[in-house]
Amino acid sequence: MSLVLDPAAQDLLFREARTANTFTDEPVTDEQVQAIYDLVKFGPTAFNQSPLRVVLVRSSEGRERLVQHMAEGNRPKTATAPLVAILAADNEFHEELPALLPHFPQAKDMFFAERPARESAAGLNAALQAAYFIIGVRAAGLAAGPMTGYDAAGIQKEFLDDDHTPLMVVNIGKPGEDAWFPRSPRLSYDEVIKTV
């Protein structure tokens, strides 16, 4: 059985897409980011909790502040990407649940009254949303360069607060010269999928 999604779209989103390491200087517009969000916001999360929060780093001053917290090998990529997004988990996402889950507003206090439960749920579900975000960047015809090599405490202090946990930094733009490393191997179907 084949997939319903057009093969060209499959290639754009998965088979041909890779982490970009260089970018052109073509800007990424607010309209493109809005279109990405308007698509990926529909990806599922538990209780529709939607804990992902995004800080867009556009200014030179913001870029300089961010680059100092990146691992050495990631600094040039972050310094030159047209747009950089800090993806974070909102550990106080439960405050939005009455609006996001109107048929079950008591979920806010029933399941997420305690901070450890919120942090666990926010981390998992914001990571799901981060994956949707990367796919959305690809759907917009842009390349994503997601990275976790950074000083998380430094980024949290510089750009977030104690209620937000950084998940990853994503460089975004049109791929530049020599943007791709060779494709790394993947596990086979039989190595991953088991039937019981």
General description of the model:
41% of the residues lie in helices and 15% in strands. The protein has nine helices and four strands. It has helices at residues 7-15, 30-40, 60-67, 75-80, 97-100, 107-112, 115-139, 152-159, 189-192; strands at 52-57, 83-90, 143-147, 164-173. The chain has a four-stranded antiparallel β-sheet with strand order 1-2-4-3. Helix 2 crosses helix 7 (115-139). The model has no long low-confidence stretch (mean pLDDT 96).
Report the portion of residues in β strands: 5-15%
- Structural class by sheet pairing and helices: alpha+beta
Which H/E pattern describes the elements?
A: HHEHHEHHHEHEH
Spatial sequence of strands, sheet with the most strands: 1-2-4-3
Mean pLDDT: 96
Straight-line distance between termini: 21 Å
> Main β-sheet, in a few words?
4 strands, antiparallel
In quaternary terms, these chains amount to single chain
The helix count comes to: 9
Extended strand count: 4
Q: What value does the Rg take, in angstroms?
A: 18 Å
Determine the fraction of residues in helical runs and give it as a percent range: 40-55%
Q: Indicate the overall shape.
A: globular
Low-confidence stretches: none
